[in-house]
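STRUCTURE:
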């Protein structure tokens, strides 16, 4: 059976799950990137998670991520950001702190260099994947039924199409970045947008991106785009491109101008209040806190 579901609960649909097969994958509802139950719940059945990480889309069957937590694989995105913390020194601890409030919204994660429980340096990290239109639930259920998993017949009946909301996704994140980067540049810190290469390509085509440069460490706004490649029938992340710019550059993408400033200490205080063993970036630390409630409040369109 050909399916548009490329990954379900972090397992490639091109592979054969170990142990209990797809029935166990579907019943456990575990997100391997968060090491906990998937956070994407159905509105009509809150106890049931959706679990779809990646879809096959378009004539060339691009693998397109639709869940931001998919970007947390191996924590590679945080490793690739470390070089941007210019004030980090050997002996400092690395902390991954979720969801900080700043003018213009919130920041998904903060990567902080900490010594003696004091923040020495930090950067903000935003995650962005594609939003969908329509519902992919029937496609998901049809795939599971084809694998021998018992599903309700009515769940498989709908043939309504679904699609990728490229334009709205791209425009929304750029507008948000325009507000937030002014805050970070104003306090001489950096903001990183982590996204997939397919979304990056769309933004380059649809907005003014020609003025962005290959990443320069001194720029406040960075774009890290990642590709998905196949490895023994599984999908893995690989950093594909790094670009950078500043507040003026983001404004040029949209033709907008605004001002926003926040006291440096306001963000530092938030980070230090959230420091704990759970945020410590080490192999034996607990799984990343899945506190991106708004991003996790997916609906049946996923």
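SEQUENCE:
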């Amino acid at each position: 059976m050909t399916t548009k579901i490329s990954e379900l609960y972090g397992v490639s649909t091109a592979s054969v799950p170990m142990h209990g097969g797809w029935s166990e994958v579907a019943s456990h509802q575990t997100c391997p990137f968060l090491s906990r139950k998937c956070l994407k719940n159905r509105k009509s059945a809150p106890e049931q998670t959706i679990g779809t990480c990646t879809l096959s889309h378009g004539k060339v069957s691009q693998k397109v991520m639709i869940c931001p937590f998919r970007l947390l694989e191996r924590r590679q995105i945080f490793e690739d950001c470390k070089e941007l913390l210019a004030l980090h020194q050997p002996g400092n601890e690395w902390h991954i702190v979720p969801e900080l409030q700043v003018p213009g919204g919130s920041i998904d994660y903060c990567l902080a260099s900490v010594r003696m429980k004091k923040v020495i340096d930090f950067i903000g990290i935003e995650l962005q994947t594609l939003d969908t239109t329509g519902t992919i639930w029937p496609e998901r259920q049809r795939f599971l039924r084809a694998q021998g998993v018992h599903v309700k017949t009515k769940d498989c009946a709908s043939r309504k199409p679904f699609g990728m909301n490229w334009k709205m996704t791209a425009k929304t994140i750029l507008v948000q970045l325009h507000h937030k980067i002014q805050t970070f540049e104003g306090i001489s810190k950096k903001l990183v947008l982590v996204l997939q290469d397919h979304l990056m390509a769309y933004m380059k085509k649809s907005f003014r991106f020609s003025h962005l440069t290959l990443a320069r460490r001194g720029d406040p706004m960075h774009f890290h785009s990642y590709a998905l490649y196949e490895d023994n029938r599984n999908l893995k992340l690989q950093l594909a491109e790094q670009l950078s710019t500043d507040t003026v550059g983001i404004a040029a993408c949209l033709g907008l101008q605004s001002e926003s400033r926040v006291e440096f200490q306001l963000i530092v205080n938030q980070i230090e209040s959230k420091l704990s063993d759970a945020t410590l970036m080490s192999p034996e630390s607990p799984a990343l806190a899945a506190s991106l409630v708004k991003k996790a409040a997916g609906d049946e369109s996923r």
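REMARK: The chain has one domain: 5-296.
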